[in-house]
Amino acid sequence: MKKLKEIYFGTADGKNEKNIIENFFNYQNIYEQLENGKFLILGNKGTGKTFLLEYFKKRKEEDGNIFASISLEKFFSNKKILEAREELLDERKLLKWIIYIELSKLILSSLDFINKKDKLVKRLQAFMKKNSFDLELDTDRIIDSSLERGVKGSLSGEKGISFFIEKVKNIRSNTKPGAYYEYIDALEKIIITILSDQWESQNKIYIIFDELDNLPNNFKEMYPILRELLKLTDDLNGKWKEKSCIQILIGMRLDIYYNIDATFTNKLKEDRGIILDWNTQDGIMSPLFKMLFHKIRSSDIELKDISHKEIGKLLFPKQKFKLNKKEKMDIYEYILGKTLLRPRDIVSFFLKAQYLYPDNITLSPAELQKVAKDFSSTLFMEIQNQISGTLEIEKFNEFIKLLKKMKKNIFRFEELKITLIKYKTLFQHINEENIEMILEEMFRIGVIGNLKETNNHIRGAYFKYKNDNEIDLEEQLTVHYGVRYHLNLDSEKELLDENIKEKGEN
Q: Are the C-beta atoms of residues 92 and 232 closer than 8 Å to each other?
């Protein structure tokens, strides 16, 4: 087996992954699910939504398919433009306009696949040129221009068809710009007609909405937009299925999806969704270790035909160890317990190991414990980033301060409230009225779990991300093992290699 510094463990951000084709782990046939018409990829932050989309894109581009990515971050600046002009925002219409402008650019940039002399293609070219919608411009800039200056020209070559066409003709003759939404239906019609009649290729056009984790932390503004995006995408994908070669794909955080208050979301999730859940098996059989060992095989050709379990034994010669006098710990469960069971966590954990022990071929329990301590701050920052869209950062930070003041990693709800009352002058954003709500949110994102006894009187930790249970305020609460060291709440006994017995641990 190679040294750790010679192994490619991947990247924490799926966009930066190299050798995507070789390193992609097709867990639960997620690629085939996406290929067969599902378009909504759901999962917690760090579960591989972007990596799946990047892999899908890479595979499909090799066959000549065309992709475009649309970011909604600029949507909010578009909203401000409309508000400055005292116009109401119609989320659906603006989203539709953004999508069809992007499609117009893609079509006119792919003239090898269409008849350049076709009258509809020429009409679309003329429309884009008249409005200075340069194909090289970012779609964001084109949208800004269409909102600020209006839209000119005509997309119709016929006369007297409808009031809409007459209105467009008047706009054109008077050279007075019209509103963007007056052109949506005509633009949609011309694009679908071109792609139905003139698209000389079997390949498809894919539009990706990803990075929805990065939207502004403004709940009231964000959720209506995402609700309309989901509804519109379902409508358009259904409409396009028989008439054209277009499909929209969406990657969205599962917690944000569940917070979208709409009657159709559950059906959409069941019919069109792929949920990335990596908590299907424990220990060495966890799909996270299967993914990791898949990457190791890709880095070391000598391991190509080595089994999953054999790679585990090569990397971790000591498969079990004593964490304390009573508890014998499985090495894989120990590592998983320091994470939120996400690909990003396991990759980041082993990148830390690679940094700390670059010349190692194996990792001992004591070395893994040191890696876990170094990883603790990384995990905490990931959790801090994850609250965007669900909880104000001020409340999160003050709750963490409250935990530090309490100085316990296992506690009861009453103890938390007593500590809050004792130090209430230190807190402006959390109080006795909202502490239960904030605690529930901390349970949801994984900072806090429950300690419960099973029928065998064995006490175990239960977390929302792992067991999908609700918080029980009557039971003991525990701080996640992965962030304890960062919060100075760690009580784990330091492991020494020389004290770990050789026998009976494999």
A: yes
Strand partners, 250: 40, 209
CA distance 9 to 7: 6
The whole-angstrom separation of Cα 368 and Cα 366 is: 5
Question: Measured at the alpha carbon of residue 186, what is the angle toward residues 182 and 192, in degrees to the nearest 5?
Answer: 145
* Separation between Cα atoms, residue 136 and residue 369, nearest integer Å: 51
* Secondary element (H or E) of residue 67: strand 66-70
The residues spanned by each domain of the chain are: 73-201, 392-506
Distance in angstroms (rounded) separating the CA atoms of residues 77 and 252: 21
User: Model confidence over 454-487: pLDDT tens digits?
Assistant: 666 567 899 999 988 899 999 999 999 999 999 9
Spatial distance between the Cα atoms of 398 and 428, rounded to a whole number of angstroms: 8
Element (H, E) at 52: helix 49-62
What does the pLDDT look like over 68-116, one tens digit per residue?
Answer: 998 887 776 676 666 666 677 788 999 999 999 999 999 898 877 777 7
d(CA 466, CA 369): 22
Whole-angstrom Cα distance, residue 401 to residue 9?
Answer: 34
- Six-digit token pair at 310? 């054999």
In the block, residue with structure tokens 């001992």: 364
Contacts of 467 (CB under 8 A, 6+ apart): none
Residues near 458 by Cβ (< 8 Å), separated by ≥ 6?
A: none
In 152-304, alpha helices (H): 163-173, 184-197, 219-243, 254-259, 265-272, 287-299
Rounded Cα distance between 180 and 387, Å, is 35
Contact 240, 247 (CB under 8 A): yes
Q: Note the Cα 163 to chain centre separation in Å.
A: 44
Instruction: State how far the Cα of 99 lies from the Cα of 416, in Å rounded to an integer.
Output: 49
DSSP codes of every residue in 255-272: HHHHHS--TTHHHHHHHH
Record the pTM: 0.88
